Amino acid sequence: MASLFAAFAGLVLSLSPASLPPVDTTFMVPVATTDVHSRTPAWDCERDLEVPSGLVRNREIAGAAPEGDSIVLRLLTTNDLHGALLPRTQSWSNGREVGGAAAIAGMMTRLARECGCPTLRLDDGDAMQGTPLSNLTFGRATVEAFNAMGYAAAAVGNHELDWTVDTLAARIREARFAWLTANVRTVATGARPAWAQPWRMVRAGGLKVALIGYASILTPSLVRPDNVAGLRFDGGAAIVDSLVDVARRDSAADFVILLAHEGGFCEPGGQGCRGQVFDLANALTRKPDLIVSGHTHSLVNAVVNGIPIVQARSSGTALGIVDFVVQLGGGRAARIRVETVWADREQPDTAVARVVDGFRRAVEPLTSRPVATLAEALSRGGEQHALGNLIADAYRAAARSDVALVNNGGIRADLPAGAVSWGDLFQVLPFQNYVTRLTVTGAVLRQAIAHAVGAADARAHVSGVRVSVSRGAADSVRIVTVTLADGAPLREDARYTLAVPDFLASGGSGYSMLRGQPAVNTGIVDIDAFVTYLRRARQPVRVAAESRVVNAVAP
Ligand SMILES: [Zn+2]
């Protein structure tokens, strides 16, 4: 605490030399966001959609500090980039391009220049998974871009483990920034794995800034189990508390920042926040000066337990701008805003653009390859949609199985009407899951379907069955009938072949009933199954509007 005070005092001596009270982060109050996206309380995390209103105020307010404030340190934060290294139009952007590494870097440089203060660039994880550009290089394109963008550190998100620990370790070696995570342990020894750096101290101007990483405690259920075998992700505030102590007391950090790849959602005005990151914040007794949040692709600008918390949506569409200021009267505040990255308004960083373009050219022969023509756009509206049915059909065809089940969480983009390329399809299925054929009893199949229709985070599409359900109190859903493609009812004791992503076959997303069932990995990656299925279909491809999970008719 004393050192933070000293840093503030040293920097604002000319403003109010004697009136600075000892620093207590509980007094830090972020000024309201300038980005009205936060007024959308229910963010659709899977589809990354939001209400498009209120985007216009960003520009006017950007960089306009209240009279007399002195910015001591400015943090520029991103989270959940998901490999979005190129700018993209969004459903809410009126055809304008948003994000992209070069624009983000340009915006960061502008914001640093406007401030004229020490700045740090930080990312909160899930950076590498999600686009051909990044995935076809197993994240290397993102790491190279981050190197050029001048990031100081990134948290290890759950998706950083999508390509095994060895791949992550290779990416960490290539990074000129720190990948941080404090709460992962090797089960066998209880020690941190060699690749897991818990925290680091960086310099910004004359300030010492401690950066602590924290991975989602749900990581084991979000990652292919093989990839996290032998690792455990400890929850709880004790780990963070002890590192905050070490950073402040033993290492004299002026600021302590927690990069927690945990998320949540708030009601308008930063009230009523719920989610893992807020549970963590509430449990802390040693308070960091800021928590950078991620994982839920939401806009968070809130104070919980006296700790400011920021999350800037996802896919590089927005930037978190956190100013630690000393006000004219000597009071301190963390002023936070979240601004949209309009690619057409920022001067792109040419060095970053060059890095990204090199990778883009390398993958373009593959990504630009035409695959099919769609008669209509296929978008992910609601729990059941034609795109999901189409993917489930592709799984069933690839595995030659009776039934297929694919989880909605693995369907990551919509498809436009007209010609679609390999790259377009890759955005839909970026995870490179293997199509796995299980042999299960009717009873197990029924359990899996019940999990899919009953648990909010387990929603799925099916092929080869028609399910009728009844909805009861408190959103409970009960299966009434399951009918196979030939019209026969599901028999509990019969055996069926079931095609699923290997992620579900190994029990991911709570499908524990599938783990250990007789399984054959077809060796076919989901994107290839999808491409093959669409190529073979009559062009243009028309998808019947059909609901395979329907409400049972009341008796
Ligand atoms: Zn995540």
Radius of gyration: 24 Å
Shape: globular
For the biggest sheet, the summary is: 6 strands, mixed
Query: Helical proportion?
Result: 25-40%
Give keywords:
disordered N terminus; six-stranded mixed sheet; 5'-nucleotidase,  domain 2; globular; binds zinc ion; 15 helices; Purple Acid Phosphatase, chain A, domain 2; 555 residues; alpha/beta
How would you characterize this protein structure?
The chain folds into two domains: 2-361, Metallo-dependent phosphatases (Purple Acid Phosphatase, chain A, domain 2), CATH 3.60.21.10; 368-551, 5'-Nucleotidase, C-terminal domain (5'-nucleotidase,  domain 2), CATH 3.90.780. Helices cover 26% and strands 27% of the residues. The chain is built from 15 helices and 28 strands. The protein binds zinc ion (ZN). Zinc ion is lined by residues 126, 157-159, 216, 261, 295.
Kindly summarize this structure in a few lines.
With 555 residues, the chain is of the alpha/beta class. Helices cover 26% and strands 27% of the residues. The protein has 2 domains: 2-361, Metallo-dependent phosphatases (Purple Acid Phosphatase, chain A, domain 2, 4-Layer Sandwich); 368-551, 5'-nucleotidase,  domain 2.
